[in-house]
Amino acid sequence: MVAGFRHSTPGPSDQYNQLHEYELTATGNLYNSVPEPGKKYTDGSSIDWLQEEAAERERSHALHSQAGVRGALLPALDSARMWIVVIATGIGIGLAGAWLDVLVKWLGDIREGRCAYGFFYNSVACCSGLDAGEFCVEWQTWSQYFHIKSMFASSFLQAFVYISLAVIFGGTSAFLVENYAPYAFHTGIPEIKAILSGYVFDAFLSPWTLLIKALGLALAVASGLSLGKEGPLVHVACCMAYLFSRMFKQFRHNEASKRRVLAAAAAAGVSVAFGSPLGGVLFGLEELDAFASETDVMWQGFVASAIAAVALQWVNPFGTAKLVLFQACYLNFPSVTALSDTWRAFELIPWISLGVIGGVLGSLIIRLNVEIAIYRRQSAVGEWPVLEVVFASGVTAALSYLVVFGRVQTSELVANLFQECDPTKGDYHGLCNKYSPNATKENIFLLVLTAFIKVVLTAWTFGMMVPAGIFLPTIGIGACLGRAVGLVMQSIYRSHPTAWFFQSCPPDPSVRCISPGFYAIIGAASMLGGVTRMTISLVVILFELTGALSHVLPIMISVMTAKWVGDALGKDGIYTVWIAMRRYPWLPPVHYRDQGETAAHVMRSVSDLVVIKDGVTTVRELLDTLRQHDYHGFPVIDKHGEYVGYTTRDSLQLAIDEIHFTEGAYGLEDKICTFSKNYMLVSASNRIDMSSTLETTIIQLRKEVSQEMLVSMFQKMNPRQIIFTHAGKLTGMVTKRDIVDLLTQHFPHAASLAREPPPT
Amino acid sequence: MVAGFRHSTPGPSDQYNQLHEYELTATGNLYNSVPEPGKKYTDGSSIDWLQEEAAERERSHALHSQAGVRGALLPALDSARMWIVVIATGIGIGLAGAWLDVLVKWLGDIREGRCAYGFFYNSVACCSGLDAGEFCVEWQTWSQYFHIKSMFASSFLQAFVYISLAVIFGGTSAFLVENYAPYAFHTGIPEIKAILSGYVFDAFLSPWTLLIKALGLALAVASGLSLGKEGPLVHVACCMAYLFSRMFKQFRHNEASKRRVLAAAAAAGVSVAFGSPLGGVLFGLEELDAFASETDVMWQGFVASAIAAVALQWVNPFGTAKLVLFQACYLNFPSVTALSDTWRAFELIPWISLGVIGGVLGSLIIRLNVEIAIYRRQSAVGEWPVLEVVFASGVTAALSYLVVFGRVQTSELVANLFQECDPTKGDYHGLCNKYSPNATKENIFLLVLTAFIKVVLTAWTFGMMVPAGIFLPTIGIGACLGRAVGLVMQSIYRSHPTAWFFQSCPPDPSVRCISPGFYAIIGAASMLGGVTRMTISLVVILFELTGALSHVLPIMISVMTAKWVGDALGKDGIYTVWIAMRRYPWLPPVHYRDQGETAAHVMRSVSDLVVIKDGVTTVRELLDTLRQHDYHGFPVIDKHGEYVGYTTRDSLQLAIDEIHFTEGAYGLEDKICTFSKNYMLVSASNRIDMSSTLETTIIQLRKEVSQEMLVSMFQKMNPRQIIFTHAGKLTGMVTKRDIVDLLTQHFPHAASLAREPPPT
């Protein structure tokens, strides 16, 4: 009957999906309760923030206006539910992060050997409880375990197990991702950014994606592929928040509230990834632009972030009572302030050089990564994602095994590179061999080689069918290069300790003047700056990671240099580039400066718009329009072209269905739709009143406004569309999508990885 | 001649000021160069951000479109100038802060004695260079200096010098402020908040204010009045940034660019005040709402903040190589992580209680402060500001001298209260007397008494005619109460070490289970939360101050509790209350929720508006309108009431002056003003074309939008006014002032301290 109206609308596949989704959520009793229009969005569309805020306002108003105790209690309950979700997510992601660390450590270790106590101990747990100086015999390499004495056979066995397990881990991860949760691949941050800004992509946050992403991430990291766990952990945290938020109607029914919780979860994800609760909040602020100017949401992010860090610390996955591995690096020093004198003005030259290197190399990684991603999409490689991962794991493992610095996990490598040489501690692969110039040369060569290999592998890996973060490999590359520059400086100093350049160093060359470990931190900061183009959150994360609070100024200078140099070679960070390639409707929070163009240049003029005519369009024509066009909404004008309002597909369809149900189908299709009060006098039997379908939250501008202001309006108010009128007449319309396209038009590969032409 | 038009306009005093100001800035050659309309604002008005952004856009466009090298160089120079100002401000405020610290320390010390080496050494500098265990004989109290042996005479002399110098310092400070820079009184943060959001108040940032505020602050702090230096330092930093920015045209001519630099300066001010660079940035973000969503500005704030901290550390005013006094408190512990186990779940009960106390007492201070400020304004007290300060200094000094804890400067008191008792270190006024229950009781009584006295004195002092911050006294009150609660808990534990409540404590009661020093931190956090209603920046400032990173969770919980309790007793923090009392046009960044009202309820309807009629109004009528009304701008409508545009007083006046200059005065007053293209056909000799005076950046809405959305539009886009139209017809207008009044209407004393009815 009524359904006939809907099922008989064969339209573009997208429209079909929309209706399908729509039916699912109406749960069969569409006609008993009248759902509010515009409440549901299909995946792939953008929410209208103004609309959602208005809905939230109505709901909150309804709660507050309840009589008596209910009126006082319900709003409190509302806020309590939000905190439950935020706190549960914080605890959840803290525990998940800790569990992942334990799993990764164990998986990584069994590539080299096993524990005699039991198979499920990792090397640290296996050797714990020893006194200082005791040697750990319980941890056996595979050749020890199989009692292989021959040097050649032992090396071969070790390499074979190492590489095979890498391939198995990588392949399993890719297999899981491809078959069970394709959205679990890649970092997830571009999607989270888009979702937080209003993109609807619920499938991306499903429980199944959560599980596969977490498991696949552990396997991928353990396989030794050149990837990190940071971005994926943000994705996992958001999946968790989504899962918890589904328990409460207030989040299910309001996209804006849901996004507030997701923003807090994202901050918690970063907090766990780096053990950096403040860094998490600032990452949410700067990179995800998650808190807009709502300090409440920032506070929720901070709480989630702190709780996650506490949960992680409680589990204590590294057995060190510290949040992260790197923090070890400055505990050699009696106190942080002691560091404050250990850098000299001349060091600014190598540090700024590192900034320049970071900017150039970062841009190179971005470009390389884009080219590889496009090649993958266009060639046969894209058809065999699991094979690609297997191959990449093999190559990565083989290369890493040969170049010693790559053999350990990147996080361990970075921890070692950040560490200053300390005679009382062990030496890492001869990195601290102090007095042999040859060893230094060899180290510099190896470090640069490792960095070079990692650049290529990272650009290849980021985008394969496994969960993959870009942060840790970037830190690794930067740390290698930074340490290399530090070693170069150190050897120059050692050979010319009295040169004027080193005047400010202590005259005795045996006293340390250059700290190569700190150069590694600077290198890492520069590379991160070049790849992500973040600024303040990077600095905070790095000094939370390393404890180098007093060295914040050089870190800032190098990040700034890297960003400036990088921006000169291409404005966008790697996440922005991926967003543009996948054509997500996300507006970068940049200050857009036009060249004098006005909104008229980007607006769709009224002659190109599908409009509904107040008092003219019949129900039949209206249904035809709905069938032929899959736009989300339509402007309504009157006979004279005067702008009456804006209405959405969903609310129109609903209104017609409702009238059809109450008044029957007879003669309905010939009735005239009216939207304004001018038609109150027309006989009611000839018309149906659709004025209730008009949106109240439409922004109108004049087409003479500058593009700069138009973009700023979209960035700040986040509407779905803006209407242009002049002297009451509709002149045109601009949607968020148009603005997104405007802001990405400078990027050559925009939309090259988009799945399908997205809905308007 | 032409000037006749302007000078013959006797209007309200405000208009006169406006014209006066206008003449000053035109520097005599108004008619050679045509100044762009809307560029200048008088003090007391609000800028239109959209307008300023548009002007900045035009300027930047002009720079970029220069040919050749100039086109590449000028924009870079532009950005370089901004960085010069930011960096210079950072260095300047860092040095100024250090200099203030030194001055305050010396002034404070000479209240107790003098250095035998030389009059200008403070007690620390005087006694430096001693070996451990040596006793400092060079620092002499006044009775030692005058060789007074009698116990009574000695006490009397000490008290006399102490109190007289306090009165002299306080009186001098008030005298300087009242006579040379009245804007230098109070904290300055409410004004800075208003200025950053678009209020024009250049006199507040004058070099003279800078000097007097800095000097007066040092005197006021040294006088022992219950005030801190935090807010005033933010003001001083902004004055510096204003001074530096005046050197460059780009800041002089654009209010928006100027505000970006001021935002960075404010962050630097907080950074120096607390030695907390991150806290500075977050304070700018949360309390000043300074960075909107522009991460560039945040980055500038971070740079300024870090540079200021480095400059402060370089001067090293405390001789400790640390940024602040309080940091000492956790250096007893071998490492911060060792702290992580020293708090137990049952302690949440006293901590949450402290949060509740903070919330209640914070609201009490706000209310008391408001009542006192209004009484001061309404009674004769306000006429004798210097006398009031002299009296207050005397009372404060006498009370502080009697109650021992108050005798030292608040910062020193707080540092001692934050410190755990350590047998190897000195005991502070018997605070650590461990085994005498009577001493504990006495300490608790004294601490509560000190807190109570400080509550009253602080509420009185904050608003007197001296520079005064509220942060430090609030921390002091909180630290006293927190320490008292800590001592109560400790004595309960000591008398019942085996109670079930203390199960989680170690069984041996001689091992410390309760850390009263940390309770003091919690108390300080709670009080700050109650008074300022800040959240995340407080937490960050407190853990940057104390190094208690691992205790961040209890600090968060207590701040949160204090904020919730405080909000229940009145939504606004102390700065917001002062803004409301002084009626600054500042929009709190709260999520305003209406009760179903629409914009129609707050809008001024078209019948109440002074409008200009396109094609009808003559020049004479226009000049009359300008003379009679001091509105900043006027809507333009046509004969049929259709909305044509919006134009400002300045641009109208300019356009008329210009025509008058080029075409002469003859017949000018009878000409008709036209604004739209409809009148192109009317004979040019009968009309003057004013279409260029229309603003392009006007936002139009329909009066049916919810108040919530209207407020959000003002908060996010920050326009000066929004126009309402319906079907092309002007229906009304809302200005920022209307929205400010809407948001402060719940506050009973709104505008009670406003100097005069501010311009619209």
TrEMBL record, chains A, B:
Domain CBS stretches: 603-663
Lineage, opening ranks: Eukaryota, Fungi, Dikarya, Basidiomycota, Agaricomycotina
SMART domains documented for this protein: CBS
Sequence similarity: Belongs to the chloride channel (TC 2.A.49) family.
InterPro entries: CBS_dom, CBS_dom_sf, Cl-channel_core, ClC
Organism encoding this protein: Ephemerocybe angulata
Pfam families, alphabetized: CBS, Voltage_CLC
Any one annotated GO CC term: plasma membrane
Keyword Transmembrane helix appears in the UniProt entry: yes
Transmembrane keyword on record: yes
Name of this protein: Chloride channel protein
PANTHER family: CHLORIDE CHANNEL PROTEIN (PTHR45711)
SUPFAM superfamilies given in the database record: CBS-domain pair (SSF54631), Clc chloride channel (SSF81340)
MF-aspect GO terms: voltage-gated chloride channel activity
Intracellular or extracellular location(s): Membrane
Mode of membrane association: Multi-pass membrane protein
Membrane-traversing stretches: 82-104, 159-177, 208-227, 233-249, 261-285, 349-370, 444-462, 468-489, 534-553
UniProt KW keywords: CBS domain, Chloride, Ion transport, Membrane, Transmembrane, Transmembrane helix, Transport
